[in-house]
Amino acid sequence: MKIHFLGAAQSVTGSRHFIEASDTRLLLDCGLYQERSLRERNWQPFLIEPDTLDAVLLSHAHIDHCGLLPKLAREGFKGPIYCTPATADIARIMLLDSAHIQEEDAAYKKRRHEREGRKGPYPEIPLYTVEEAERCIDQFSPVEYGEALTVGNGVEAVFHNAGHVLGSSIIDIRMKEYGEERRLLFSGDLGRAGQPILHDPTVFDEADYVLIESTYGDRLHEDSDTISGELAEVINSTVEAGGNIVIPSFALERSQHLMYYLNKLLLSRRIPRLKVFIDSPMAVRITEVFEKHPDLYDEDLTALMRQGKSPFDFLGLTMVKSVEDSKEINYIRGSVIIIAGSGMCTGGRIKHHLANNISRAESTILFVGYQATATLGRHIVDGAKEVRVLGKHYPVRARIVQINGFSAHADRDELLSWISGLKKPPRQIFVVHGEADTTEAFAHFMREKTGWDVSVANYREEVTLN
Questions:
Q1: Are residues 401 and 419 in the same domain?
Q2: What is the dihedral of CA 70, 56, 36, 409, to 10 degrees?
Q3: Are residues 199 and 128 in the same domain?
Q4: Which residue in 110, 147, 399, 451 could disulfide with 364, CB within 3.0 to 4.6 Å?
Q5: Same domain membership, residue 102 and residue 72
Q6: Closest CA to 172 of 39, 289, 26
Q7: pLDDT per residue as tens digits for the range 12-44
Q8: Looking at the structure, do residues 210 and 346 belong to the same domain, yes or no?
Q9: Domain range for 300
Q10: Mean pLDDT for the stretch of residues 217-244
Q11: Among 32-41, 307-316, 351-360, which is the least confidently predicted range?
Q12: C-alpha 132: how far from its chain's center?
């Protein structure tokens, strides 16, 4: 049995791990690289032959985990893509949006290069097209949590709740070879216990090998119990100043969490009744998927829904779909809350709202998610005095606030708590999905706390699982 680390190895995106067991060949995730320095890997040939794969096991629908599936299918993969029903529903939205962006970017790049008389570092063709994404989506094969799935000769997989985003999974793989069984756990992106909307991550008592994410493996989150108070303070102080609250937000999970907290604050009258705009067509569509899967809600949200107090449909909430309606927000007098994508300000409608608010001292730009290195969001959070938005330079005069308790990723101690559920030491733990310094720090932390065999996965490394 072998595992090849083909992505998200000392990097946060591009999740991709190849497993060989007996005569079965599986790919765990097939994600897009999003770090600027690693994007060229998206264009490179796959390090395995796609047509030799038996199946893909997809942990969840974030684009850094599923975003290269259309390219994999175009280049020869014909097998099933197993995931939960909610992941399949959301991945369809994410992949079609990604394909549309790929087509738009390629067309824009071609026009710009023709105008400037030069060639760029990437091809002037899309990484994949909408048509290719649609064909790939046909290969999705939904599997319920807890359902044992035979994925090859002597290989079985079970999807368990990861508590990260709707439908996210920890993938439990059991492999029989030469009369022996080995059990491998792939954490995917691990969520946090006690968070709203979703159930807590599943805990396991045994495994031979573990692939564990480490996005926040070198730090601790702020207590999520303070979110309501911090959010109320930002909103109330900005309303008093006469500005807008502009929130760059990921369409999947973070936007829904914001709606949940805003609804609770409004119900308890801790904030004034304001217009709240979800200005992200993708977030609107994903929210519709949330409403389609009430069986995945935790007890608190289930109780709210039974009382007719849905966080996805409260007074003052507007789901913005058209570009024209998005532009109209700029002409509203008085304070409003604008939740728009993308979460790191790398594209989407948030850029237009930044252009209209970042130089207004009375407004607040509120960050509620991770800001990767070299993104516009990271520049703003790090204290930039001036930023370039939509080709123009703007002085940063707005109040900049970051609330970290929203994170859907487990932090260092939460990751340790999850893996400490194992009643005996696994043969080996591999740390993946984290920046280089973070993975090393987390591996060292786990070795100190547990005494177990913990190593950091390296890109293109091949390990034999004895």
A1: no
A2: 130
A3: yes
A4: 399
A5: yes
A6: 26
A7: 999 999 999 888 999 999 999 988 789 899 999
A8: no
A9: 224-406
A10: 94
A11: 32-41
A12: 22
